[in-house]
Amino acid sequence: NQISRKAGDLAILETMNRLAESAGEEDVPFRIGGDEFVLLTNSSDQAYACSIVEKMQAKNGASFNFEGQFVPVALHFSVMQCQSPSSVRYQELFQALHSNIEENKRP
Fold it and tell me: What distance in Å separates the CA atoms of residue 11 and residue 63, rounded to the nearest whole number?
């Protein structure tokens, strides 16, 4: 319905804001579809990626205000390293991203 669509749109914006706030200057947050997002970094340091995840996890459960109601947002995270970034094709990257997301959604 219209109410949930508006709240969902605000949740997407909230997620993008959280990504942007947690990211470094050269990192690029983007939405790959639905409620799935990626933060692309040029860093090969897994500890750096994990530090971003920690920043994001600290915000889990924080709410945004939608027409006087506070709506909590909780996100799931995973870290994926591209093995050969110079030769990755667009379609292969997105398939790998979606696979990684699905694998990490399982309990």
Answer: 9
Q: 56-88: per-residue pLDDT in tens? A: 999 999 999 998 989 899 888 888 777 665 666
Q: Would you say how long the chain is, in residues?
A: 107
pLDDT digits (tens, 9 = 90+) for 4-21: 888 999 999 999 999 999
**What residues have CB less than 8 Å from 85, skipping those under 6 apart?**
none
User: For residues 81 and 88, what is the distance between their CA atoms, to the nearest angstrom?
Assistant: 12
Contact between residue 24 and residue 51 where contact means Cβ atoms under 8 Å apart:
no
Residue 40 β-bridge partners: 28
Q: What are phi and psi of 29, to 5 degrees?
A: -85, 140
Q: Which residue has the tokens 């993008």?
A: 16
47-61: pLDDT as tens digits: 999 999 999 999 999
Q: How far apart are CA 53 and CA 21, in angstroms?
A: 12
